[in-house]
Design brief:
By secondary structure, this protein is α/β, with parallel strands linked by helices. The protein has 2 domains: about 20-45 and about 290-390, Aspartate Aminotransferase, domain 1 (Alpha-Beta Complex), CATH 3.90.1150; about 60-285, Type I PLP-dependent aspartate aminotransferase-like (Major domain) (Aspartate Aminotransferase, domain 2). Helix content is about 40%, strand content about 15%. It has helices at about 25-40, 55-65, 85-95, 105-120, 135-140, 160-165, 190-200, 255-265, 275-285, 290-315, 340-350, 375-390; strands at about 45, 100-105, 125-130, 145-150, 170-175, 205-210, 230-235, 250-255, 330, 350-355, 355, 365-370. A 7-stranded mixed β-sheet has the order 2-8-7-6-5-3-4, with helices on both faces. A 3-stranded antiparallel β-sheet has the order 9-12-11. Helix 5 links the parallel strand 3 and strand 4. Helix 4 crosses helix 5 (about 135-140). The chain is globular and about 55 Å long. GO terms for molecular function: pyridoxal phosphate binding; transaminase activity.
Length: about 400
Amino acid sequence: MTSAQSPRAPGAQPLAAGESLFEAPSYAEWGRGVLRVRDSGADVAMLWDSTIAEPTAALMDVVRNAFSPSVTSRYVSVFADGNRFAIEALAQRYGLATGQILTTTGATGALALTLKALVEPGDQVLVEQPGFDVLARQAREVGAVVGHVRRPAPDFRVDLDDLADRLTPRTRAVLITNLHNPSGARLTPAEIAAIAAVADRVGAVLVVDEVYADFAREAGDPPAATLAPNIVTVSSLTKVFGLFALKFGWLTADAGLLAKIRAAAPDGDIGISKLSHAVAAHVLEAPAPFEAHWTRTLAATRAPVARTAEALLRRGLLEGELQPYGCMYFPRVPGVDDTRALARRLFERHGVLVAPGEYFGAPGRLRIGFGADVQTVELGLARLAEGLAAER
């Protein structure tokens, strides 16, 4: 074992920067606390991030080339209709018509516009569980009554019977992710179309967050919005490309549904940046360096995660298979119901940060993220294995 992989020294003290970390009421607040721990310089291995680390050098090259010696032609108005070059590049990449695309400030901006158009106060929105808590929070912010639809382990497929039982005449939307956050499970186009058909029984729209979908691009799946007229796809450059700084997202839908979303927000997403969306246009027109970055990252990190998972499964310290795509692993910890407390002990005693399943509605599980550099991931895996063995 190299020094970079060595477990934390025995007897290490709890880290002051994270004293209140596991008291955070939501995953978003927990994540902000994690960033404070990271920025404090504390001796802690981050094994939580499901976003690919920013390809800073490639991003700098794009910006430098776009704005020197003259300003790029992609630096155009984004008022109402968005950056036309970015929209054209998205259309080409995903096999869409330009009129099917509306650009936004990230996937959360796209989801907000969609829910504003679809939901009135008191309407029902069904959100997958386990799931990313931001989806439910966005629905509550427009006055929705939030219910849940099950995605049970081990395969985390949507339970269609459960969905049908939970629909009401006031169900306006069903929110899911693909790849699934937190498990990384992939739904096939046929499965997504089946979910949309069930939702359509009460005139509900299926909203599919596809921020992780490009990890499975080799499968050849089209955007979910192309599968049925009652589906909206939202996505961004944040997770797979690691370009959170650009705040570039989009939504796509059938012409009639998109017209309804546009009518509810005639100025579009007024928060989008002319500058960052010009850069996004260049990224989308020449994505090879960014594709290479995430591909290299996962080629380096997925193998040690798979080896460690296999070893921990053999020893009975974890249960649940690693999904074939993406940079998330969501195993169950046998005999442990309170994984928030477990994650706290792993942090304080063993210097490794993993996300407790409670933040995704699945106590007893841990979400392990491996989008960082391989040295960080390997260190985190070594400390996790040590910590789980000690806890048992």
